[in-house]
Design goal:
Distance between the termini: 46 Å
Strand order of the largest sheet: 2-1-3-4-5
Shape: elongated
Structural class: alpha/beta
Strand content: 5-15%
Number of helices: 9
Order of helices and strands: EHEHEHEHEHHHHH
Helix content: 55-70%
Radius of gyration: 24 Å
C-alpha cells in the first residue's frame, strides 16, 4: 500500500462516501472515508501524503473550514473541494486559501479521477521540492561564516577578484573558500551551486 496514492474522502453523506471510495479503489487508489472534518483531523498527520476530497457543505465543520485548518496546521495536503452550484463563491475562497481544485455537483467519475490525478501529481512535486530544500539547507548549514559570505557574493554574480576586494582578503583565499564550499554543497558547477543555494533560501549579497 503506497501512501502516495492515498485519497481521503470527507463527506457527511454515507452513500456518496461509499460510491467515491468504490470509484477510487477501482482505479487503484487507496481510499479512506470520513463522515466529518473533525474525524479526519483526528488522524491526519503533519507529514500526511496523498490528497483530500472534501464536500464543502457539512455540519459542524465544512470543507472550507477544514481546508483552512489544514493551512493553519501547516499540513501540505492537496485539497479538492466538492461543491454545489450555489457554493462556487465558497469554493473560490477555499482555492485562495490553498485548495487545488473544486468540482461542481453533479459530476461524473472521470472528472473526479482527473482532479485526483492532478492533485496527487502536485503532491509528488511538493514533496520532491521539500526534500531538496531540506537537503540544501543541511548542506548550507555546514559552511563556515566566511564560506557563507563567499557563497552570497557568488550568487550576486561577482568574480573572485571582486569578492576578495569586498571581503578584504586575497583572491587566492577566495579560491580556497570557493573550493571548500563547492565540496560541502556537493556541487560541481556554479549553476548547480546557485540552484542549491536558492533551494536553501540563501539570499545573494547586496539584496534585501
Amino acid at each position: 500500500m503506497t501512501t502516495e496514492r492515498m485519497v481521503f474522502v470527507v463527506d457527511d453523506d454515507e452513500a456518496i462516501r461509499d460510491s467515491l471510495c468504490v470509484l477510487l479503489e477501482a482505479e487503484g487508489y487507496v481510499a479512506r472515508a470520513f463522515g466529518s472534518a473533525r474525524a479526519f483531523l483526528d488522524v491526519c498527520q503533519p507529514d500526511q501524503t496523498g490528497c483530500l476530497v472534501a464536500d464543502i457543505r457539512m455540519p459542524d465543520m465544512d470543507g472550507l473550514a477544514l481546508q483552512e485548518e489544514l493551512v493553519s496546521r501547516q499540513i501540505a495536503l492537496p485539497v479538492i473541494i466538492v461543491t454545489g452550484h450555489g457554493d462556487v463563491a465558497l469554493a473560490v475562497r477555499a482555492m485562495k486559501a490553498g485548495a487545488v481544485d473544486f468540482i461542481e455537483k453533479p459530476f461524473d467519475g472521470e472528472t473526479l479521477l482527473e482532479g485526483v490525478k492532478r492533485a496527487l501529481e502536485l503532491a509528488r512535486k511538493q514533496k520532491s521540492r521539500s526534500v531538496r530544500a531540506r537537503n540544501a539547507a543541511a548542506r548550507t548549514a555546514t559552511l563556515t561564516l566566511r564560506e557563507r559570505q563567499v557563497l552570497e557574493h557568488l550568487m550576486a554574480g561577482r568574480s573572485n577578484k571582486m569578492i576578495a576586494y569586498e571581503l578584504g582578503i586575497s583572491p587566492r583565499t577566495i579560491e580556497i573558500h570557493r573550493a571548500h564550499l563547492m565540496e560541502k554543497m556537493q556541487v560541481r558547477s556554479l549553476s548547480d551551486l546557485v540552484r542549491t543555494a536558492l533551494e536553501a533560501e540563501v539570499t545573494p549579497a547586496g539584496t534585501t
